[in-house]
């Protein structure tokens, strides 16, 4: 056997292994995701790793999704789906998300202005589990569903570990 056939055989094996690796990664629907920051605490800790699937399927309230935010991926929980109503109250000089329970806690709820917005078709409203520090739909608005790149198939309920 001469050196050309040995070298050719090794190159063929290396190329085959490379193609097989790339095909496996492209076809594989599961991807590791890393939580960066504290917006999903206490459910998920900073630098915690989870498995997400690129097979998004049907979206539901409570799903934890990976969103392509333009400047990198973010991981948030779906709070409202297309067609859902979001209630806001004017409190402390700004519009804040509210709900019937929050309004009942106010001493004089009739003194506060209210408004309702509807999540448009093809969009979702996402929130971090840690509302105090999370940058989410409250700041950047609704998210187009086509910007959701993955979903955690076994997401924990909010506040659990």
Description:
The chain is of the alpha+beta class. The chain has two domains: about 30-85 and about 120-150, Umud Fragment, subunit A (Ribbon); about 85-115, no CATH class. The chain is about 20% helix and about 30% strand. It is built from three helices and ten strands, in the order H-E-E-E-E-E-E-H-E-E-H-E-E. It has helices at about 5-25, 100-105, 135-140, and strands at about 30-35, 50-55, 65-70, 75-80, 85-90, 95-100, 115-120, 125, 145, 150. The model has no long low-confidence stretch (mean pLDDT about 85).
Provide the descriptors you would attach to this structure in a database record.
alpha+beta, 161 residues, Umud Fragment, subunit A, 2 domains, three-stranded antiparallel sheet, 3 helices, single chain
């Amino acid at each position: 056997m001469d050196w050309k056939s040995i070298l050719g055989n090794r190159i063929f094996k290396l190329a085959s292994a490379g193609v097989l690796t790339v095909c496996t990664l492209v076809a594989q629907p599961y991807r590791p995701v890393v939580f960066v920051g504290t917006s999903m605490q206490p459910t998920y800790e900073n630098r915690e790793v989870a498995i997400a699937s690129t097979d998004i399927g049907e979206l539901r309230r409570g799903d934890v999704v990976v969103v392509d935010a333009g400047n990198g991926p973010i991981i948030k929980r779906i709070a409202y789906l297309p067609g859902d109503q979001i209630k806001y109250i004017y409190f402390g000089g700004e519009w804040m998300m509210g709900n019937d329970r929050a309004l009942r806690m106010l001493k004089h709820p009739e003194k506060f202005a209210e408004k309702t917005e509807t999540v448009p078709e093809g969009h979702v409203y996402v929130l971090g589990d840690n509302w105090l520090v999370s940058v989410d739909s409250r700041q950047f608005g609704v998210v187009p569903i086509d910007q959701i790149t993955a979903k955690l198939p076994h997401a924990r309920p909010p506040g659990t570990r």
